[in-house]
Amino acid sequence: MTLVFAVVGHPNKGKSSIVATLAQDDSVAISSQSGTTRVAETIQVEVGTSRFSLVDTPGFQRPARVLQWLEQHADNAEQRQDAVRKFVENSDCQTQFPDEVELLQPIISGAAILYVVDGSRPYGMEYEAEMEILRWTGQVSMALINPISNEQNITSWQQALSQYFKVVKVFNAVQADFEKQMSILETFAMLREDWHAPIRALIDDYQAQRAMQGLQSVRLLAGLLTDMCAYQESQKVLTRAQAKQLQPVLEKQFYSRLGRREKQAHKALKDLYHYHNLDIESVELPTEDNLFDTEKWIIWGLNRRQLLVAATMAGAATGAVVDLGLAGQSLFMGALTGGLIAGGSAWFGADRLAEFKISGLPVGGYEARQGPMKNRNFPYVLLSRFLFLHQALQQRTHARRDSLRLEEGDLSSRIERLTPEQQKVLHRHLEKISQQQASDVLESALKPLFRS
Amino acid sequence: MRQFSMVLGALGLLSGFVLVMSVLSGDAQGRVNLLYLLLLFVFLPVFGLLLSLVFLIRTSALGLAGLLLELPIWPATVRQEVLSLAPGIERKYWLFYQTQLISLAFAIGGLGAFLLLLAGTDISFVWRSTLLQADDLLPLLEWLAAPWAFWSTAQPSLVLLQQSQDFRLTTPELSAVQLGQWWKYVCAAQVTYMLLPRAIMALLARSVYLGNRNVVDSSLGRKILHIDAINTMPMQGHLAPVVHKVDSNYLMLDWGGVPPVVAEKLYQRLGNPGDTVRTGPLSETQRGIDSGFSGAAIVVAVKAWEPPMGELQDYLQALPVGDQNNKLLLPLDWNEKKLLAVQSNDLQEWRRFCGTLGGWSVLQPDDLSGELT
Question: CA-CA distance, A15 to A9, in Å (whole number)?
Fold first, then answer.
């Protein structure tokens, strides 16, 4: 059984926004101009094994005259549904009322009705003709009050709509969270018995997809951190002088490629959550120049004191492994020494960036090398920016068309919400990758951050 | 990563070759202890195989390749490429695959060394034990030889075992030809317990690695959305001009159902109309313009926030007005207490609408907004 929902209403009242939000994809065209949707547009959505269609319809243009026509062709309630069918099939009506024919066609074919109004503007009698027409179709229906700019008129709308629709819900297309979106589907399951099982399966699939998106995000982040921390730019030349001359070139390439890699990960994250057209405004760290400005890192990553604590925890954890190996006979000097060394180097190396090195090659010649990034705060900065974007994408709906501003992160408080053990594991593995060591359990170390 | 695989392969090949060479070189008389060979070619490979399976099951185990990668001997590019593999499953299975490749190369190197020595020198296979006798050893050797039971000349026998038992204090007369007969058994053991399992494991590891890499790639695009991009074209059309004043003695056509308080406020700014007609979607009013209004301005008041609809368009086009009339559309915005300034987005919408009609302008009196008293 195919679930089909026709989203109908006055022109320019947020129908396309509702479609984009329920489809969870920003590829749906949304315009501030009325009448942009000229023909019914079917969007087929596949989530796991479930499938449903949303029909974005043109708005009513001549509802009063259409209702007049229908009234002339139905003497009683029994004939009303048939009159609507005749209207859709009538060639004169198709010429005179193309928008109404287009929007009623999927409903006559069995689509459930999602009637959308703008709850921020007052109710008007002119809406009654179209609501009456929808009632005549006899299909399962629900009214959605979409408060586009405010909620001042919701009550009056609720009173009017409840006379035409069994279910009236307030649904802000640009703010509705995931649970709210699912509740719309759940309501339909209650309205139509034969849709109960497929809608339940669809909701389960949406939830499974949500969980999978979370896991994929962790994977993307782990890949980003590992790549960025290990990345270096190198070139082989014949003489040391030539190698020295390469420094500005390699440095530029190095920082530019790191910047590109981060953007690539952010794009992958956007695609994962089906934001294909979303622009990200990165105010604080947009260019290669200030991405590597260590002062700005504090905004995103950890400050010097927090970094000291993190490095000490990581160093102590590593040293504790030695203590464990010696069955405690080292009197926990391993943990103490590891913590002191790591903490000290974090404190004094807070401003260190990627170094330029020239090394001789065994077969002759020299290798000039820029990187990798040595700063211990670097993975924290990347982590914070990625988490900020991830959270913003999760909280956003696909109806929004404004760009996303990558603002200051709040990494330290997110880390503080983890258990001490989780914090220790996280710091240890970030420390490890900042020293260009592979960490196979990085994903599991990062996972709690996505739950906090 | 190919570079890393090749280095590991060469390392495995070389170590297999050198180890087997040194073990098979034996003592001064070229005698090699058969039991040591069994340890090297049967028990160690089987133990290694079990260890590999443990690594495969345990998430955090690095395997031999992972341990080698930890050594600070690798060029930065190699480490970087390995780190570019997705941490977790993808990297784990790649390292597991590399471990199998090392072991396979080791087995090939060992077999190569064995065959080379067989061809180039005489090897005498003997065995020594303080505790065991030939009778004790035979069942084990027969059990190990079960996989190549079809190769009868490579099977152990009690006579051969007894003949090849060596005691260092006594020097029994051993036949070099007879002692050499063990080579078939040793060769079969090497192929069966060292080479074949590792080849199978390498193939298995490769398919597991490739399979998991595909899972990582494909799982990103789980959801397919079909959209026919038919409504994405922007609406064309020119914008009608905006005027701020209207001549006196104008005719007001109230399409939007303007409340009296709003109308009163409006008329304070525009002046009172010569006549007002309530109209709307279901209104039958399509009356002719009175002669007194011939050539006068026609003002149609609408709700600014509602979009222009087809039925208004039909009404305006059917209005019996001529070119001599000044045709104005007046979008108004209000709430219970206030007459509001029309939002720019709404105003644009009405200008676009009037632009499609021809001859119509949008009327927006200055400073219309204010308290409704």
Answer: 7
Fold designation for B242-371: Rossmann fold (3.40.50)
Tell me the shortest Cα–Cα distance from B61 to chain A, in angstroms: 9
* B99-110 confidence digits (pLDDT tens): 888 889 999 999
For A111-127, the pLDDT digits (tens) are: 999 999 999 999 988 89
Taking the C-alpha atoms of B31, B35, B37 and B40 in order, what is their torsion angle to the nearest 10 degrees?
A: -150
Residue with tokens 């981060």: A262
Beta-bridge partners for B327: B298, B360
How confident is the model at residue B226, as a pLDDT? 47
Domains by residue range for chain A, with CATH: 3-191 (3.40.50.300), 231-451 (no CATH)
> Contact A38/B91, CB-based, under 8 Å?
no
Q: Which residue of A has its CA nearest to B218?
A: A216
Min Cα distance B69 → chain A (Å) is 9
CB contact under 8 Å between B84 and A122, yes or no, is no
Pairing of strands A141-146, A280-281: unpaired
Give Dmax (Cα) for chain B: 146
Of the candidates B76, B83, B225, the beta carbon closest to that of A234 is on B76
What mean pLDDT is predicted for residues B228-243? 65
Using the Cβ of A379 and the Cβ atoms of chain B, whether some distance falls under 8 Å is answered with: no
Is the minimum CB–CB distance between A436 and chain B shorter than 8 Å? yes
pTM of the prediction? 0.66
* Cβ atoms B368, B334 nearer than 8 A: no
Name the segment(s) of chain B with CATH classification 3.40.50: 242-371
